Every structure is written in structure tokens, then in C-alpha cells.
Amino acid sequence: MPDTPGEAQARQPLWFLVLYALAWAGGSIAYVPFLTILLPVRISALVPGEQAIMWLSAIAFCGAISASLGHILFGWLSDVTGMRRPWAALGLAFSCLLLLVVPWAHSLRDIVVIVVLWQLGLNMMLAPLAAWGADCVPDGQKGLLGGLLAFAPGLGALTGALVTIPGLASADGRLALVALLVGAAVLPALLLGSRAVVRAAPSKAPPATDQQHTRKSAALRMWAARLLVQVAEAALFSFLYLWLRSIDPSVQDHLAARVFSMVLVLSAPAALLAGRWADQREHPFLPLVVCTLIAPIGLVGMALAQSVAIGIASYAVFGFSTSIFLALHSAQTLRTLPDSNRRGRDLGLFNLTNTMPSLVMPWFTLALVPWFGFSGLFLLFAALAVLAALLLRGLSSGTVREI
After folding, report:
1. How do residues 275-310 score in pLDDT, each as one tens digit?
2. Domains and CATH numbers, the chain
3. Residue 11 class from Cβ within 10 Å (0-12 exposed, 13-18 middle, 19+ buried)?
């Protein structure tokens, strides 16, 4: 497959879309088990309880900064060099190598350096991979692509459960196993992608000024809407367990884990169906609007919940709708990028909607909850979700066209 940014493709075969989605899931397979299980275990072995939490927070902050800058940098480099797959392959090798280096880190400083470099390597892989999808998947298949991408978080969680099976691998062996699984997920698309169907490249003439303006406006709406939803999603990811314990102190941590898993499992096939429907009916943004209107219902239910059962049911409504939204949004964003020659850079800017909430929400939540409680926080998030729906409602199926 040509790596030239902006080169249009005919409808892609299903096998390529599946392999591409699997490659994208390679990112989740890499960071979910490493950041949520394997890294915290190593930090806990180096420092006691409260210090471990502080160090993990500092590492997460530095890693998010590195990921943000890396995604923009390597997306831009894949633009200016006109290559996607070579950069993704280099990032794959670099990030997997750094996972294997972790056992040689015997101080917190060493771990911080490795995590920062690992985030750069991971985004060296993910940034050009995202832009490659924008290059070669036509608008008429982006809903299906978004549905397939919805399986990525579940595969990441499944990997975490797999590598931690007692007796399967040692602590160091788990890191090697993760690296092996990441390679197995990403390499098929990189190696076989050149066999995908290609049609002639379009004219390099720049789009009309009014078309550029329309696409920039659509991109800004999509960026802002995702940021508003991600603010709520990031907070709930971090504080779901603490909120459930505020309702019932006897709640165990495994309950929160099961709720997360249930939402991921159920939302993936639903996103696939919604994305396919959006392609067939040519309403790419309608499922996004519906999801941002359903999410506030769950958040209001959470704000009013007086029992764990009602709280879990309300969170399931919120988590189900936002999981579908985030997957479909990732794919439909590709149709709004204003410059076909700078897709990598622009997607790096979009990636800030994923990293920024993780940087600010823990402190934001800790500042608000003591004054207004979790209920006040959830009502604020509900208002933000409604605002996201209003932003997306202004987009129609004919707003943007593939360049």
C-alpha cells in the first residue's frame, strides 16, 4: 500500500480493515497491562504504599506529556517524509525493546526515563498508523472501521488478564510476553497492507477555500466534543471505585473491575453495528450525537444513586454510550481532517483530547468533590456531554467529503 499521505484508496477489503484494527489494538495490548498492572507492581516493590502512589502519579504525568509530544512529532514526520509504515515499524521495534529493558531498571529514575522513552516509541508507532488509516480507508467505510476499533480496549484488558495468569510467566517474562503479543498484533497489517486495493491518486490541487473552512470547522467541533466527553470518561476511569465506596464502604475492588469489563465487552459489538449502520445510511455523525445524549442520562442517574445497584446500572449506561462514542469518533474524525498532506500532524493534535484530561482530571476532581461531592461532579459532566451533543448536531452527512 502506498505510504504517500493524501493518496486515496478504493473500498478496502474486510481483511485489511480487520488487520488494521488489530494493529491499532496493539497500542492497547502494549499500554493496558504495562501501565495498569506490570508497572505498578514494580513500583510497589521499590517504595512503600503512599510513596508508590506519588511515584505512579508522577510517572503517569511525565508519560502523558511524552505521549502528547511524540504523537504530534511522529505524525508530522510521517507527513513530511511521505511514509507511514516504516515509521510505525520503527516505533514498534523501539517500544517493544524498551519493554524488555524494564527489568534492568533498579531505580525510580531509571523507570521514569524508560517510561518516557517507551511512550515516545509507542507513539512513533501509533501516530503514523492513525494517519495511515486516514490515507487509505474511504469515508464510506469509516463507520465500520470505528466499530472494529471498539474491540481494542477489550483486547488490552484481555492481555492484562492473560499475562498475569499464575505460573504462566515470571515478572520479567510477562514484559516479554506483552512485547510478543504487540508484535503479533501490529506486524500483519504492516506486512500485508501493500496488497490492499489501490486506485489512482487524486489531483494534488488544494481544495477550495470554502471547503477547507468547512472541514476546519467540522474538525474543531469534533475535537471539542471529544475533549468534553473524555473529561468525564477520564475521571470515571480513575474514581469509579472510590465513588462506589462512597455509596457503600463494603464494596470490593473486583466489583469495579467487573463493571469495566462488562461495559467493554458489550459496547464493542454495539459499536460495530452502529458504525455499519452509519455507513449504510450515510449518517456518520448521528450515532455520535445519540451517544452524547444518552451519556448524560447515566451521569444524572449516578448523581442521584442511593444504592450500589442503581449506581452500577447508571454507570453502565454512561460507559456503554461513551465507549461507542470514542470508537466511532476515532474513525469519523478522519473524514474531517482539513489538509490531506498533514494528517499525521493533525491527528497528533486530536490525540491531545486523550492525554489532556488524564493530566488535569485527578486534580480537578480532588478540588471539586470535597465541596460538591461526586453528585455535583457528575451533574457537571452531564452538562459537558450535552454541550458535546450540541456541537456535533451541527454536522450533517454532507458537511465534509473525502479529499
Report:
1. 999 999 889 999 999 999 999 999 999 999 999 999
2. 14-137+151-195 (1.20.1250.20), 209-393 (1.20.1250.20)
3. middle
